[in-house]
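Changelog-adjacent note: as of this version, every example in the card shows the full chain rather than a window. The one below runs 95 residues end to end.
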Amino acid sequence: MLDGSSVGSSHQVLALPIAEIIKDDTPIDFLKIDVEGLDLLALESTYPLFEKRLVRSAMLEFGPTCRWQMMAELTAGPGETVPNAREHALKVMAT
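Full-length structure tokens:
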């Protein structure tokens, strides 16, 4: 679960890797990811789909890079080392 907060309230959001939601080998004509700051995590969770060549085309919307580090820190587990989000993003996009 990811804990999120906004002005005056907080909530929990169930976060599942995309490849766990799409479990069969059905081809995906178009995959769009727009998850407001968690784009890299979502993209990483699709690796199994791309490795199986199930995705024909994809569109990924990235927010400003200044938010990447903040989101990496918010989603890190207790005691987990948070990588430099910008460097990590470049590695993810290069694979």
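Structural remarks: Helices lie at 18-21, 39-44, 47-51, 66-75, 85-94.
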